[in-house]
Amino acid sequence: MRLTGRTSITRRLTLLFIIASSAVLLALGFVIASSVEKHFVELDTEVLADKMELVRHTLEKLKSQDDLHSISQLLDNSFVGHHGLEVIVFGPNHDVIFATPNAKFPIDLLAASAARNPHGLVTWTMGEQTYRGIAAELPTGSSGRSKVIVAVATDIMHHQAFFSSFLQTLWIFVAGAAALTGILGWAAARRGLAPLRAMRAQAQVVTAQQLSHRLPVESAPVELAELAQSLNEMLARLEEAFRRLSDFSSDIAHELRTPVSNLMTQTQVVLSRPRGADEYRSILESNTEEFEHMARMISDMLLLAKAENDLVVPARERLHLAADVLALFDYYDAVAEEKGLHLTLEGDAEVSADRLMLRRALGNLLSNAVRHSTPNTTVHVSISATPDTVSIRMENTGDAIPQEYLERVFDRFFRVDPSRQRSSEGTGLGLAITRSIITAHGGTISVASIGAVTTFTIRLPRAP
Ligand SMILES: Nc1ncnc2c1ncn2[C@@H]1O[C@H](COP(=O)(O)OP(=O)(O)O)[C@@H](O)[C@H]1O
Ligand SMILES: [Mg+2]
User: How far from 297 is each of 100, 431, 436, CA to CA, in Å?
Assistant: First the structure.
């Protein structure tokens, strides 16, 4: 089981629980064991030092005329009833002067310890027994004032037995505790992750038909709330894109249905009986008009689809707006004259934009203005600039746009008065295209309609 990579969080948490609890318990066991051990050593040291002191006293009591061998007598008396304590006394020639029954200790080790570190603890093993003891060189009051090496030791087998059983208990306890915390950890992790599973269940419900579904944010734990929030935002974006896409396809189908069925009916009627060449020609001419309208609509829709998916990247150049507006005036001159309209321009500014796209955007506004103007009025374009924006206002007098439709005129296929739609007129895509062109240039477009005066205002960032 790895702690990183693709593995279950529950498993990882369970494993971490086990490791953490085992580590804590082992550390605790170690601390307890070492303090118990220390306590044993302290007890032993105290007892051994006491006995050593006793031996020292006894040895000092030897009268000068006594020889060393009287020690046995004295010590025998002193050590009656001290179970587990062993004493050995070596004479000056390392001969054993006195020894309790089990005290067959190594003289070399003890002599070395007595010389190096008198009264310091030494541990040694003899046969099956392990001893802990102290050794010292002590003076005697005997004739010749000889010195003897005395060792006092205690059997520590029972300490060791205690330790091994303590360790065994500790291991069993740690293993049991690890297993238990493992189970608890697993349960806790599963419980803790329940909101995640709930979220997954919610997410599984989301399909193309149910993009409006959102993950619960309020009931999610803090850690998941942000994730849920982000996923919800993503869903909202997807829903919006999906809605646009399906609106777009239904709009296309809707808009193409009428001209196609017109063409079909017309063609069927013509075919219903033989007709003269002139009649055929006039029918074909009328069909051509319808086809042109459809072709225009299709290319507009293609452009719009690209623009809505940010596929239109303006090829920017620096241009003087006035020149382009005048070129458009030229283009619409004939239609304007027919209606007795005046086209006027005021101001100029430089912008960095795609010339063809910008002409298209302004051309759409101008063609609308010309179409919706009352005869013998003025279409006025004014260009002004502030330090960071350039504004283009186009004003005309004629059909007003009701307030409730002001925002919708930029929607594709929206026409204030659909009944007036003729194939020679626009496709209802003009303002939608204009807006996406302006947006692609980082600008904005707005409309106001007060009385009979309709004003479109484009704001573009100033050329750097
Ligand atoms: N200058 C204007 N004056 C009055 N109404 C306008 C003007 N410009 C646009 N409109 C309204 O906005 C609608 C959408 O315009 P547009 O997107 O260019 O489509 P189209 O010109 O093909 O009808 C038009 O049908 C018209 O009702
Ligand atoms: Mg138009």
Answer: 121, 13, 16
Same domain (yes/no): 14, 161: yes
pTM over 0.85: no
**What single string gives the DSSP state of each residue in 83-115?**
TTEEEEEE-TTS-EEEE-TT----HHHHHHHHH
Q: Give tens-digit pLDDT for 400-458.
A: 999 999 989 998 888 887 665 555 567 788 999 999 999 999 999 999 999 999 999 99
Length of the chain: 464
Pocket of ligand 1 contains residue 348 by CB under 6 Å = no
Distance in Å, CA 35 to ligand 1 centroid: 93
Is residue 258 included in any domain, yes or no?
A: yes
Amino acid identity of 364? Answer: N
Same domain, 132 and 28: yes
The domain spanning residue 424 has which CATH number?
3.30.565.10
Look-up of token digits 């709009």: 251
How many independent structural domains does the chain possess?
Answer: 3
Whether 147 is covered by a domain: the verdict is yes
Residue to probe by mutation, ligand 1, list 339, 415, 417, 458, most atoms within 8 Å of CB: 415
- The model's pLDDT over 341-353, given as tens digits with 9 standing for 90+, comes to 999 999 999 999 9
**Structural domain for 340, as ranges:** 312-461
Please say if the pLDDT value at position 194 is more than 60. Answer: yes
* Same domain? 41 vs 73: yes
C-alpha to C-alpha distances, 183 to 4, 14, 120, 285, nearest whole angstrom: 21, 7, 50, 85
